Amino acid sequence: MTEITKKTILEIKEGLKKRDFSALEVTKAFISASEKNKNLNIYNTFTPEKALESSKISQQRIDRGEERLLDGIPIAIKDLFCTKDILTTASSKILSNFIPSYESTVTQKLWDAGALMLGKVSCDEFAMGSSNETSCFGNVINPWSKRNGKNLSPGGSSGGSSSVVSSGSALAATGTDTGGSIRQPVAFCGVTGIKPSYGRCSRWGIVAFASSLDQAGPITKTVSDSALMLNVMSGFDDKDSTSADLDVPDFTQTCNDFKLDKVKIGIPKEYQIDGMSPEIVKLWQQGSEWLKDRGAEIVEVSLPHTKYALPTYYVIAPAEASSNLARYDGVRYGLRNSQDNLDELYAYSRGEGFGYEVQRRILIGTYVLSAGYYDAYYRKAQRVRNLIIQDFQKAFDKVDVLLTPTTPTAAFELGSQLDPISMYMNDVFTVPASLAGLPAMSVPSGLSEDGLPLGLQIIGNQFDENSVLKIAANLENQASFPFLN
Amino acid sequence: MPIDKDIVAKVSNLARIKINNDQLSTISNELESVIEWIDTLNEVNTNGVEPIANVSGQKLPLREDKVTDGGYSEKILNNAPEKESGFFVVPKVVE
Amino acid sequence: MEKFLINGENDNFEIVVGLEIHAQVNSQAKLFSGSSTKFGSKPNENVSLVDAAMPGMLPVINKHCIKQAVKSGLGLRAKINKFSIFDRKNYFYADLPQGYQISQYSDPIVGEGNVEINFPDGTKKNIGIERLHLEQDAGKSLHDQHPSKSYIDLNRSGVALMEIVSKPDITSPDEAGAFIKKIRSILRFLDTCDGNMEQGSLRCDVNVSVRRAGEPLGTRCEIKNLNSVRFVMMAIVSEAKRQVEEIENGNEIIQETRLFDSDKLETRPMRSKENAHDYRYFPDPDLMPLELTDDFISNIKSSLPLLPDEIRVKLVNDFGLSDYDASVISEEKETSDYFFIATEGKDGKLVSNWLTTELFGSLNKNSLSINNSPIKPKQLGELVGFISDGTISGRIAKDIFAEMFETGSDASSIIDEKGLKQNSNSEDIIKMIDNVINNNQDKVNEYKGGKDKLFGFFVGQVMKDSGGKANPKMVNEILKAKLN
């Protein structure tokens, strides 16, 4: 029998059903794996007692034959989801003592389905970053390492969530994706993750970064596991005005469909950018070949405004963030730097409580919204966003999904990217789908010459997650990726 | 668009973030390079293109006028750095 | 009306005023959360996680508040915008938990309209409405609880407000006062705002500028948070005088936000607004644009009640009231409601007389509002009915009214109890008249000799003898016949 921590959710479910092991054994296995991987600095708050307690209830339901979709499945939660009575920090000093009295809609759905919480995992501060280095608790380490042994960034912002799954410390984790925060770190850590269509998962109770872009999604080892998690996490929420009032299809249904006759795969030519590593180019071509082998038709498409997606994103996301983060003012909760004057209290609390990258983005956002610049930056960016959406719409008139690399490079060494714009370039392939609110998924599809994971991204039409999952499952099936755990 | 220290000071004041004077020039350089990069958007012809604020494609949902929330001031005040007799407390605001 | 001018040292100045009225929407729950709008609760009791801007909280809009805004817009004869946007107005303040107020900036729910204001001398003026938009109220800061601290109560945080912005059509403090009263009256007739200025359900910001006759508009200053009509009028005068003085001293008026000190009768700059002009408005990404259908609007339109202007016309045309009485009765919803109940099946004009003279007089004397009147509208109607059908005389009616006001009894029971029913028996009246004539032969002779004025004396004597109960009309008629 394979080690418990090397299994997928579906395998664990099967094993629990067949009494190969108990929910308690499963939970203990992941708790000890988490403890063993302490050096990766994944957890902001570790809650093994909580998982153990819930595992008993899960086991009782399993014993009665009344098991729910995720009964007995230990998972980790990105520390951006508010969890009732459990510290929720967004990896920021300003929230380092914040204990919510409420549970986010998505995590509540997971607990209702029987999932067990191992703890809250690290991310970039307020999800702003692509390396997990902006967390106030220090960076997370990628379980994969270079042949030279140097520690690598897990990517970000969902670096803890990707690392926890990759290292076999949890069966799944929740992530959030604003411009690539699920897809980039899963590619760096050699795991799978999907950002569903904007509106698919409720944003209620998730610490907001950029409201028009933020989406929750699952991070798992396999495509089928992601589909299962997404089944639970999705659905209309009347507490979120932007939540999609649509039926949720069974996302697992297409994950075993390996015939791609009549499926058209678009290859956006603008994604062939300067500076992309040759191994990524090669993998991308390999991905096309695999899909072609299964009967898909490969079509070149054009998304002409692709190169403007990043600057558009870096107007819209900081602008929204500058406003969303105004509530962290040291008055009702969070860190307060006491001063005699209220404005000073704000400025010192926020100066001390926010890290450098968060401050930088708030300043950019404040600047682009401020008097005299609004039309030139914010309104302009909203118009370009419209053009980017139209590009995708035209492409989806011709093809079912798009295939692209997830990132331009494999994971980089910690501390290696110092200037903001080159850091922002990490999201060059992920940001366009975020701006258009489209579902997009990264699947680990190969290794770099350095032996590091590389991911391919599948972008689907709005609310067509099933097509994305189907193509992802085909890539996964062909790639036979050598998971670490 | 050059971003000098004065602009950074003004913006950080608007955003209520205390920035030390010795950081002002680093930040102004960084902001300037980011803004310069953002300025590439000017290459795009957006005449007649509507600005898009939200991509959900949904209609604004409307709630019924019913009292369904509130009544838990202790939870509201639970995380407060300073509170007194059911109020949040801040340094005196003089008008 | 005569032009209102501020007399400076050298010149006379006109004033130009625009008003922003913040009217709390009548609703059970807040604009974007399900917590209560109730006034006077314990601190932070009516606060939801959304109102306190806890991390990850999101707004969901209250449909009723949208209806109320549309209803108010229709009452202001304004254009209803089928497409409107909620924007964030970003600024930091102790009682603004989100660090922004959700408001409407570029695309408000209601556009241009107008209201007519009326003056006691019968003149009228149209004041333009620029817009009406929906926004969230802030919480409340208490500054008097502690020597060095302010206390924050978020109970008001998130309550729906309608901000009604006038065009700068107002040129005197009286017009400003009349405008606010008219807006208040319209909103109260519509039941979209209770108009309670003491509780802060209606607050005003005033934009004031001055200019010499014929000059272009001057620089304006905004005076914030005025919570009574009287203060608005006083603040306008104080601010206009200050501006005139500045100008005559050769200084420029700086556009700024000021506060009115009602003790010192002066305005002063508001410190917290010094650097607050950059609100960084942008569409709230948590809320899609609001789109209204024609059906939604026409349903509201078809259920609109009569408004003061329409009621005034009705009172004149259908009830024969004077313009003045009609304006007085139509000004307040309670008064017009009172009138319409009292007047059911009764003589409207007579009801109006009793309402505006006797009842208003007594209420004033006792500092009571019409809501707390000891005489209920049906009771006043009954009293007036007894006068019309001759059951009692007008004089007796006054006594009965006084007793009704004191005890709250019905006119009918007072009449029965005290035997105050008017005597319309002609035999009785003839007997009483004969008696008076017999006892006053000298006066009869004087009367017949041409001293017409004595007629009143005979009427008075008969009425006195009857204890006021003789039907005065019959007394008059029979006396006239007997004496001539």
* Corresponding CATH superfamily of the largest domain in chain A: Amidase signature (AS) domain
What is the beta-strand fraction of chain B?
A: 5-15%
The beta-strand count of chain A equals 11
Order of SSEs of chain B: HHEHEE
> Which runs of chain A of at least 5 residues are low in confidence (pLDDT < 50)?
none
Helix count from the secondary structure assignment of chain B: 3
Shape of chain B: flat
In the predicted model, the low-confidence regions of chain B spanning at least 5 consecutive residues are none
Count the helices of chain A. How many? 15
Largest sheet: number of strands, sense, barrel closure of chain B: 2 strands, antiparallel
How confident overall, as mean pLDDT of chain B? 94
Net shape of chain A: globular
Task: Provide the CATH top-level class of the largest domain in chain A.
Answer: Alpha Beta
Series of secondary-structure elements of chain A, N-terminal to C-terminal: HHEHEHEHEHEEHEHEHHHHEHHEEH
Major sheet description of chain A: 11 strands, mixed
The most extensive contact between chains is: A-B, 72 and 52 residues
Strand composition percent of chain A: 5-15%
Offer a concise description of the structure.
The complex is a heterotrimer of chains A (485), B (95) and C (484). Chain B has helices at 5-14, 21-38, 73-77; strands at 62-63, 83-84, 87-91.
Describe what you observe in this structure.
Chain A is of the alpha/beta class and 485 residues long. Chain A folds into three domains: 4-259 and 408-479, Alpha-Beta Complex (Amidase signature (AS) enzymes); 264-303 and 387-398, no CATH class; 307-381, no CATH class. Chain A has helices spanning 9-17, 23-36, 48-63, 105-112, 159-166, 183-189, 223-233, 278-293, 309-324, 342-353, 356-369, 374-398, 420-424, 431-436, 465-479; strands at 43-46, 74-78, 116-121, 172-177, 192-195, 215-220, 264-268, 297-301, 401-405, 440-447, 453-460. In chain A, helix 4 links the parallel strand 2 (74-78) and strand 3. In chain A, helix 2 (23-36) packs antiparallel against helix 3 (48-63), helix 5 (159-166) packs parallel to helix 6 (183-189) and helix 9 crosses helix 12 (374-398). The longest helix of chain A is centred in the C-terminal third of the chain and has 25 residues, at 374-398. Chain B has 95 residues and is α+β, with helices and mostly antiparallel strands. Chain B is flat, with a radius of gyration of 22 Å. Helices cover 35% and strands 9% of the residues of chain B. Chain B has three helices and three strands. Chain B has a domain at 5-42. Chain C is an alpha+beta fold and 484 residues long. In chain C, the strands form four sheets. In chain C, strands 1, 2, 7, 8, 11, 12, 13, 14 and 15 form a nine-stranded mixed beta sheet that branches. Chain C has a three-stranded antiparallel beta sheet with strand order 6-5-16, with no helix packed on it. In chain C, strands 4-17 form a two-stranded antiparallel sheet. In chain C, a hairpin with a 5-residue loop joins strand 7 and strand 8 (124-136). The longest helix of chain C has 20 residues, at 229-248. The model of chain C has no long low-confidence stretch (mean pLDDT 93).
